[in-house]
Design a protein that fits this description.
This protein is mainly alpha-helical. Helices cover 61% and strands 2% of the residues. The chain is built from 21 helices and four strands. The protein has helices at residues 3-10, 15-38, 62-69, 90-94, 101-108, 146-170, 174-182, 184-191, 199-204, 208-221, 225-229, 233-239, 241-246, 260-284, 294-303, 305-318, 321-341, 347-375, 378-403, 412-428, 443-450, and strands at 47-49, 83-84, 114-115, 121-123. The chain is globular and about 70 Å long.
Length: 464
C-alpha cells in the first residue's frame, strides 16, 4: 500500500478536496490585481542567519541563540547576511549565563571569523504583519486530476486580471483602488487557518499522529468515516515505509543542489521560472506603449489567458509536461522577437503579437506551477517551490530595468524579452517527464526517476 492508496481510502476527490481547492483559488482572484497594482512592491521583514545545526536542539532561548550565532552591526542590530563560524559561548558568560564543559571547549578554540548564511535565514515577524504564502495545492489531490486542478488555479489568476480592469475603471482614485484590492486578503487570512497540513509532509517530519488526525478528518468530511477509522499508525507506517527510511533528518535549500538529478532539475527550473516571469511582467507592465485604451488592453491581456490555458491544459494531458513547458516558452520568445521587426506605426499588428506572446507566457506559468510541484519530492517540495518563486521574483524585478535600455537602443528590450524564453525553453527539454507519475516523496525517488543511485546518509553527512 502506498500513500496514494490512503488518499483514495479517505476520498481523493470528495467534498474536502473541492472545498480545499476552492478556498485556495479565491485569493488568487485578487493576487493578479494586487501584483499588477503594486508593481512588485514587497516588504522584507528583519532577518538574520539561522543558527548552526548543532544548536537547533539546544536548550537556549531564541535570544541566547541569536546572541551566540549572529554578530551585531554598527547600529547594535543583528547582521542580516553573516554569522559566526563558531558559536560564541563567551557572550553568554558575559550575560551571567553559565557554559557547559562542551561549550567551554569550543570557547578554548575561539574563532570570531564570520561566514554567510549557509543554513538559510530566520525571520522576525513581530515587527510587521505576515505576508501571503502560496499553499501547495497538489498535496491532497490524486494524480489523475492534478492537471485540471493546476489549470483551475491558473484561471483564477486570469479572472483576477479582468477584475482589476473593471475595478480600476470604476474606481479612479488610487487610494480607494488600493484599499479595494487589499481588503479581501484579510478575509483570506482568517479562513487560511482551516487548511489541513499535508499528511505526507507530517509523516516525513515525524508527526505521524497529526497525519492520522488529518487523514481521519478528511475521511469524515468526505463521508467516509468508517474507512478513515481504519487508518492507524501501523497502516500509515507501512504505506510510508520507504519514504520514512529515506527522509530522516532536516533539509534546506542546499538539498536542491546536492544530488545530480536534483541539481540539473533545479538549474533548469530556475531558468524556466526566471524567464517566464521576466518576459511576462515585461509585457504586462508596459501596456501604454501599444497606443490602446489602458482599460481595454488590460482586459485583452487578461482574456487571452483563457484560450492559452485551455490549449496548455490539453497539451499537458496528452503531450506531457515537458514538451508543453518548452513549447510555450519558445513560441512566446519567437512572437516577441518578431514584434521587434514590426514598425511602430503598425500598432494593431504589434498589439496582436504582444497578446499572443503574453498568452504563451501565461500558459508557461500555468504549466510550471504544476510541473514544479510534481518534480520536487515531498520532503523538499516547499523549499523547491519557494526557491522557484524567488527566481520568478528576480525576473519580475529585473524586467522593468530592461525597459530603461529603450532610451538608448529602442529594439534591445524586445530582443532581451524574446531571447530569454527561447533559452529557457531549450533548458526545459532536460527536465524529467511527470505525466501520469505519482508525486515523489524522497530525494531517492527523484534520483530513481533520473537513473541515479545515491547513498542515504545521516543528516550531518554529505550525500554522494
Amino acid at each position: 500500500m502506498a500513500f496514494g492508496d490512503l488518499l483514495e481510502q479517505v476520498g481523493s476527490t470528495g467534498r474536502f478536496q473541492i472545498l480545499h481547492v476552492t478556498l485556495l483559488c479565491i485569493p488568487i482572484l485578487m493576487m493578479a490585481s494586487h501584483n499588477l497594482l503594486q508593481n512588485f512592491v514587497a516588504s522584507v521583514p528583519p532577518h538574520y542567519c539561522s543558527a548552526h545545526a548543532n544548536l537547533t536542539q539546544s536548550q537556549l532561548s531564541p535570544e541566547e541563540m541569536l546572541l551566540v550565532t549572529v554578530p551585531l552591526d554598527q547600529r547594535g542590530k543583528p547582521q542580516s547576511c553573516q554569522r559566526y563560524v563558531v558559536p560564541q559561548w563567551h557572550l553568554l558568560d558575559k550575560n551571567g549565563t553559565s557554559m557547559s564543559e562542551e561549550q567551554e571547549d569550543t570557547w578554548d578554540g575561539f574563532d570570531a571569523d564570520l561566514q554567510t548564511c549557509t543554513d538559510g535565514w530566520s525571520y522576525n515577524m513581530t515587527e510587521m504583519s505576515s505576508t501571503i504564502v502560496s499553499d501547495v495545492v497538489v498535496e491532497w489531490i490524486p494524480t489523475h486530476v492534478r492537471t485540471g486542478v493546476g489549470t483551475l488555479t491558473g484561471y483564477c489568476y486570469t479572472l483576477g486580471q479582468l477584475i482589476l480592469a473593471v475595478i480600476a475603471y470604476f474606481i479612479r482614485d488610487w487610494r480607494w483602488l488600493t484599499l479595494t484590492v487589499s481588503l479581501p486578503f484579510y478575509v483570506f487570512f482568517l479562513y487560511a487557518w482551516w487548511f489541513h497540513e499535508s499528511s505526507r509532509w507530517l509523516v516525513l517530519k515525524n508527526k505521524s499522529e497529526q497525519a492520522i488526525i488529518n487523514l481521519k478528518s478528511v475521511a469524515k468530511f468526505n463521508g467516509r468515516h468508517e474507512e478513515g477509522e481504519k487508518i492507524d499508525m501501523k497502516m500509515l507506517q507501512e504505506s510510508m515505509k520507504k519514504e520514512m527510511s529515506c527522509s530522516k533528518g532536516s533539509y534546506s535549500v542546499l538539498d536542491l543542489f546536492r544530488t545530480p538529478t536534483l541539481r540539473k532539475m533545479t538549474v533548469c527550473l530556475n531558468a524556466v521560472w526566471l524567464s517566464t516571469s521576466f518576459a511576462y511582467y515585461g509585457l504586462s507592465m508596459d501596456l501604454q506603449k501599444f497606443g490602446v485604451d489602458i482599460y481595454l488592453i488590460q482586459v485583452i491581456f487578461g482574456a487571452v489567458d483563457i484560450p492559452a490555458k485551455v490549449i496548455i491544459n490539453v497539451c499537458m494531458s496528452f503531450l506531457g509536461r515537458r514538451p508543453s513547458q518548452s513549447g510555450a516558452l519558445i513560441l512566446a520568445g519567437i512572437t516577441i522577437l518578431i514584434n521587434v521587426l514590426v514598425p511602430y506605426d503598425k500598432q494593431t499588428l504589434r498589439t496582436c503579437l504582444a497578446v499572443l506572446g503574453k498568452g504563451c507566457l501565461a500558459a508557461s506559468f500555468n504549466c510550471c506551477y504544476l510541473y514544479t510541484g510534481e518534480l520536487y519530492p515531498t520532503i523538499i517540495r516547499q523549499n523547491g517551490m519557494g526557491w522557484s518563486s524567488m527566481m520568478a521574483r528576480i525576473g519580475a524585478m529585473v524586467a522593468p530595468m530592461v525597459l530603461l535600455t529603450r532610451d538608448y537602443i529602442p529594439w534591445l528590450p524586445g530582443l532581451i524579452y524574446g531571447g530569454a524564453p527561447i533559452i529557457s525553453g531549450v533548458a526545459a527539454i532536460f527536465l524529467p517527464e511527470t505525466l501520469g507519475t505519482p508525486l515523489p516523496d524522497t530525494i531517492q525517488d527523484v534520483e530513481d526517476r533520473g537513473g541515479t543511485i545515491i547513498k542515504i546518509v545521516k543528516p550531518n553527512q554529505q550525500i554522494e
